[in-house]
Amino acid sequence: MNPVKLSRYLVVVTMTLLAFVAIVVLQSKFDGADQKAAVNIVQSTPSKNGRTIVDVLDARHPGRPATWSAATESACFQHERVRASVLPTPTGELIAYDFVVDINGPSIHPGNPEGEEILRALAELPPAPAAPVSGSPTVSGSPSASASAAPSGSAVPSGSPPVTASPPVTASPSAPAP
Questions:
Q1: pLDDT band at 131, cuts 50/70/90?
Q2: Cβ atoms 67, 111 nearer than 8 A
Q3: Which of 28, 71, 78, 168 is deepest in the core (most CB within 10 A)?
Q4: Domain residues of the chain, as ranges?
Q5: Residue 155 in contact with residue 109, Cβ under 8 Å?
């Protein structure tokens, strides 16, 4: 074989392999970020009553922390399966609560019957106690400064009404800004 053709062939094969490795590494970074975001959504998105899934798990299994994990269901649609595993007693069997999270919504759906029970219980919890008000409200220069900081989303178990996040509360100035 001609050495010029061989070197061209090796360059093409090497570049193809490098491109493939770069794509795989980049995709794994996106998947990891989506999984981290999905766990955060499940743990921190409040329902209309101000409670979170973590509150329900704490009420159902007091003193037993949940172990959180996530796996990609669909990278194209950004659907992640989040699992909260709880050991109810030291000798008991591990209970897995699965939730399917749509990152783009964001919305939370049950991933198994145990996850559906948790979402139903979330709607039945009493409202969270109101946060104490201290001093006068702080007014920012931008009217929408705090609107993007609050998480939003919905949890929709099959056969029950959606559980959506409360809208952010912003302080309004007593006098119009100049």
A1: low
A2: no
A3: 78
A4: 8-125
A5: yes
CB-based contact 171:138 (threshold 8 Å): yes
Q: How far apart are CA 4 and CA 6, in angstroms?
A: 5
Tens digit of each residue's pLDDT (9 = 90 or more) over 33-43: 999 999 999 99
Q: Is 57 exposed, middle or buried (0-12, 13-18, 19+ CB in 10 A)?
A: buried
**For 87-123, how does the pLDDT look when each residue is reduced to its tens digit (9 = 90+)?**
888 888 899 999 999 998 889 999 999 999 999 998 8
Alpha-carbon span 71 to 36, nearest angstrom? 10
- What's the rounded Cα separation, in Å, for the pair 44 and 29? 22
Q: Percent of the chain scored above 70 by pLDDT? A: 72
DSSP 20-49: HHHHHHHHHHHHHHHHHHHHHHHHH---TT
CB 99 within 8 A of CB 82: yes
Banded pLDDT at 130 (limits 50, 70, 90): low
End-to-end CA distance of the chain: 80
What is the C-alpha radius of gyration for the chain, rounded to an integer number of angstroms? Answer: 23
pTM over 0.70: no
Three-point CA angle 161, 163, 165, nearest 5°:
150
Pairing of strands 107-110, 154-155: parallel
